[in-house]
């Protein structure tokens, strides 16, 4: 593909879907997220079946506090909003502002991840609640940990894209890449909303 | 940007070509070769099973080894033989049928293949490393969580890696079929094989993640001390059964629907009639795919889910007989009044109809939850699923290979040898499995390594084993046929069957870019319409222009290699934590490749229109 077609003088309205490759990435990624939905649904189902199987260890009511989780939720929800703004700037072909908003997204994401690691650390050291202490422990760390792993992967992905494209700006080759990364980030956010509800809110009742 | 044709390529160059290829036609051949290899391996395991059961109280193999070959026969045939062989046909045919130059994600297509192969090799490496998995292909917990040795670990890691490849392949075909169709190829003009590929890809997308999660949980229980299925830690082993069958039931439709698609292509061509009830066929395919997700608990009638759950799943299961029946009648009506040619592909298709109907009928019998308490875990079940999987899927693969061999390799498989394979395989199949219905009804349990004499099971088992030898003979003749055809067979034209669909509108051999000009599709059976209008070629939808092609890449192979190394690391780190190094190295290779893929631009290349006439890309 020649440089002119990928760097048009006037960027189209939806640069992420202007090429066939972009359209394919866009659709393929939506399908992938459909598969991810089943993956997390299976993990949620497993967690729901095992959430009271504490095996004499600490229960969710004893463990969970909503203060920390509330801060984490706010960080992640805000990061989702900032990634929307970044994509809004992308569609206006404003590369510098897009990078700035993505940077804020990444910082918020790392804030969330640090708090999650802190939370796990507290449970393991202070409460003696581990992956191996009960079926509830296994299910909790697996579900929340899978989400945390997704957050980490998303952060590294967005950072890679930002650094790789920092010097050359936006074109029709990398616009779909930014777009699907932001889709991924929204998906992670939606999963967290369910974790917040099913694991933590239902866990303290 | 190679535009010259090397006449005598060295072996190394050919090997490198296949290691780095992203061409769907070559990936189809890779799937065919490796799937065929695993099919022979699984067949060998089947023969060991049947020799062990040839007479009562036999000791051809030990009880422990019998568990291993039984487990590996099922796992190999489903995951490493049937699915890859179907992917071989899909890769070879679907892009051509929709008038595309390639799939949507050529790189991912290659990655999907290499991941499948890496997983299959890990699984089979277990034979040489202390014993294969021995908990059945369903790996029910707690049998699988407590099985000693590393056998089940190989099952978990092998299937996890090859499952990832399958998921990738599914997404690739979904996007290919939605986005890459030629102008005029509306959904209701797509050939049935493309339709079934489309529905099957959706099933893969929504079914495989459940297996992914199940395998992760099993891996955590076995290797990292979690307690999902361990009752002493509050775990619940029924969770595994649910996750496995939420994947496992759609899986059987993933296998059979493409076979339905194959027969729906072959029957019209050799009856010289359009497919009867095309719209109903599409509708039935989608409905079967949809209902396939609603019936997983019919594998669990005896678990004790309660009469309400059992009734609902029983009725939902019986409902699937309706769209399947629609298909059976449509195939019969396609034949009705047609100008029928009988060749090997057609023999498989014709024999499929009654064979599969028997399998479907026993399926409805098994769906009756109350009666299932009697059938459960007997040879009746074994007979049922071999009737649908061999009589449906394997017949479909053989038929498809005979039908599309000239498209894939430019030659027609030898008809005499083909018919010999068909008749021995067909008779052997019914000899092996028909009697097993009765063995099951007489109470012979499945998966046992032997049986006692004088319980009325002796003769039936002997007949069954004789049949298995006939099937093995037929399979060997097929392999000979492939060799004979590639050595002696004569090249044929692009359209040896007087075909109806787009893949036959291309010259032989298929050029690298498939279509010089994207064809214009004017209706169902697009090529047939042009022929009826007196044309010999498709009407082009565009002027001759430069053709954009994807670059080859070695990265998919290296990524699979990384996961292969990491897989062994995961398995052996419980014995010695030094093996964690293999985990980090393997995952490092994988993530490093993903990083390179992300930062290195890959724009593909163009074949210039001036070079097309000089034979570029042929």
Topology, element by element:
The complex is a heterodimer of chains A (about 200) and B (about 625).
Chain A: H1 3-6, H2 20-50, H3 60-63, H4 66-91, H5 95-125, H6 135-164, H7 175-204
Chain B: H1 11-20, H2 24-52, H3 63-97, H4 106-125, H5 143-146, H6 151-179, H7 192-223, H8 238-271, H9 278-291, H10 307-319, H11 321-335, H12 344-367, H13 369-375, H14 379-409, H15 415-441, H16 458-488, H17 526-532, E1 547-549, H18 555-572, H19 580-599, E2 605-607, H20 609-612
Antiparallel strand pairs in B: 1-2
- Discrete helix count of chain B: 20
Strand content of chain B: under 5%
CATH architecture level-2 label of chain B: Up-down Bundle
Question: Spans of chain B with pLDDT under 50 lasting ≥5 residues?
Answer: 1-6
What is the helix/strand order of chain A? HHHHHHH
In CATH terms, what is the fold-level topology of chain A? Four Helix Bundle (Hemerythrin (Met), subunit A)
Number of domains of chain A: 1
Cα shape of chain A: elongated
CATH hierarchy, class of chain A: Mainly Alpha
Proportion in helices of chain A: over 70%
Decide which structural class fits the backbone of chain B: mainly alpha
What composes the largest sheet of chain A?
none
Q: Runs of chain A with pLDDT <50, length 5+?
A: none
Keywords (chain A): Cell membrane, Membrane, Transmembrane, Transmembrane helix
Family (chain A): Belongs to the cytochrome c oxidase subunit 3 family.
GO molecular function (chain A): cytochrome-c oxidase activity
Organism (chain A): Aquibacillus salsiterrae
């Amino acid at each position: 593909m020649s440089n002119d077609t990928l760097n048009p003088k006037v960027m189209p309205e939806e640069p992420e879907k202007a090429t066939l490759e972009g359209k394919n990435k866009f659709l393929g990624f939506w399908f992938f997220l459909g598969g991810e939905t089943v993956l997390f649904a299976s993990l949620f189902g497993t967690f729901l079946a095992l959430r009271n199987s504490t095996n004499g260890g600490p229960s969710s009511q004893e463990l969970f506090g909503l203060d920390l989780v509330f801060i984490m939720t706010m960080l992640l929800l805000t990061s989702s909003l900032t990634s929307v703004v970044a994509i809004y700037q992308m569609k206006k072909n404003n590369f510098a502002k897009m990078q700035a908003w993505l940077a804020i997204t990444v910082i918020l994401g790392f804030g969330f991840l640090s708090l999650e690691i802190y939370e796990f650390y507290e449970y393991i050291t202070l409460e003696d609640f581990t992956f191996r202490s009960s079926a509830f422990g296994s299910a909790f760390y697996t579900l929340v940990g899978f989400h945390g792993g997704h957050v980490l992967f998303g952060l590294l992905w967005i950072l890679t894209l930002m650094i790789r494209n920092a010097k050359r700006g936006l074109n029709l080759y990398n616009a779909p890449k930014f777009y699907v990364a932001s889709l991924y980030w929204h998906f992670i956010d939606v999963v967290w909303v369910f974790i917040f509800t099913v694991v933590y809110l239902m866990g303290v009742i | 940007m190679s535009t010259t044709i090397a006449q005598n390529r060295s072996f190394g160059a050919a090997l490198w070509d296949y290691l780095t290829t992203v061409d769907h036609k070559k990936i189809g051949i890779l799937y065919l070769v490796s799937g065929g290899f695993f099919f022979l391996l699984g067949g060998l395991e089947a023969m060991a099973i049947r020799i062990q059961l040839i007479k009562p109280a036999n000791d051809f193999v030990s009880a422990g080894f019998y568990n291993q070959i039984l487990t590996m026969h099922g796992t190999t045939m489903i995951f490493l033989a049937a699915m890859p062989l179907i992917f071989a046909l899909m890769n070879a045919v679907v892009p051509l049928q929709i008038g595309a130059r390639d799939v949507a994600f050529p790189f991912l297509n290659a990655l999907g293949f290499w991941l499948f192969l890496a997983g299959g090799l890990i699984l089979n490496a277990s034979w040489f490393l202390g014993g294969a998995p021995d908990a059945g292909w369903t790996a029910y917990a707690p049998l699988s969580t407590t099985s000693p040795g590393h056998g089940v670990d190989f099952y978990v890691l092998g299937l996890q890696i090859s499952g990832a490849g399958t998921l990738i392949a599914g997404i690739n075909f979904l996007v290919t079929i939605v986005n890459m169709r030629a102008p005029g190829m509306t959904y209701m003009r797509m050939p049935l094989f493309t339709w079934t590929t489309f529905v099957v890809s959706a099933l893969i997308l929504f079914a495989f993640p459940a297996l992914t999660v199940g395998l992760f949980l099993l891996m955590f229980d076995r290797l990292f001390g979690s307690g999902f299925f361990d009752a002493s830690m509050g775990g619940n082993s029924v969770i595994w059964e649910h996750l496995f069958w939420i994947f496992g039931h759609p899986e059987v439709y993933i296998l059979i629907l493409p076979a339905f698609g194959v027969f729906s292509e072959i029957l019209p061509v050799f009856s010289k009639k359009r497919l009867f009830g095309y719209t109903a066929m599409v509708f039935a395919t989608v409905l079967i795919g949809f209902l396939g997700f609603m019936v997983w608990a019919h594998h669990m009638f005896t678990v004790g889910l309660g009469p309400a759950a059992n009734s609902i799943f029983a009725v939902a299961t019986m409902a699937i007989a309706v769209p399947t029946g629609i298909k059976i009648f449509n195939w019969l009506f396609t034949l009705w009044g047609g100008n029928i040619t009988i060749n090997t592909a057609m023999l498989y298709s014709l024999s499929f109809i009654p064979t599969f109907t028997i399998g479907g009928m026993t399926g409805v019998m098994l769906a009756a939850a109350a009666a299932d308490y009697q059938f459960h875990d007997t040879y009746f079940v074994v007979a049922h699923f071999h009737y649908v999987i061999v009589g449906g899927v394997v017949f479909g693969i053989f038929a498809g290979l005979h039908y599309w061999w000239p498209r894939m390799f430019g030659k027609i498989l030898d008809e005499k040898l083909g018919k010999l394979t068909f008749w021995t395989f067909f008779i052997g199949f019914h000899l092996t499995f028909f009697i097993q219905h009765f063995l099951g009804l007489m109470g012979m349990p499945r998966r046992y390594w032997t049986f006692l004499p004088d319980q009325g099971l002796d003769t039936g088992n002997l007949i069954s084993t004789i049949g298995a030898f006939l099937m093995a003979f037929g399979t060997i003749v097929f392999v000979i046929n492939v060799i004979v055809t590639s050595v002696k067979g004569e090249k044929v034209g692009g359209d040896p069957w007087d075909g109806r669909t787009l893949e036959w509108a291309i010259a032989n051999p298929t050029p690298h870019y498939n279509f010089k000009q994207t064809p214009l599709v004017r209706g169902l059976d697009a090529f047939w319409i042009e022929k009826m209008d007196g044309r010999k070629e498709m009407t082009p939808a565009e002027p001759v222009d430069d053709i954009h092609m994807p670059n080859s890449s070695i990265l998919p192979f290296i990524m699979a290699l990384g996961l292969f190394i990491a897989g062994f690391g995961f398995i052996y780190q419980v014995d010695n934590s030094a093996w964690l190094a293999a985990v980090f190295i393997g995952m490092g290779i994988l993530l490093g490749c993903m990083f390179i893929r992300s930062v290195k631009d890959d724009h593909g290349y163009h074949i210039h229109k001036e070079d097309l006439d000089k034979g570029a890309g042929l």
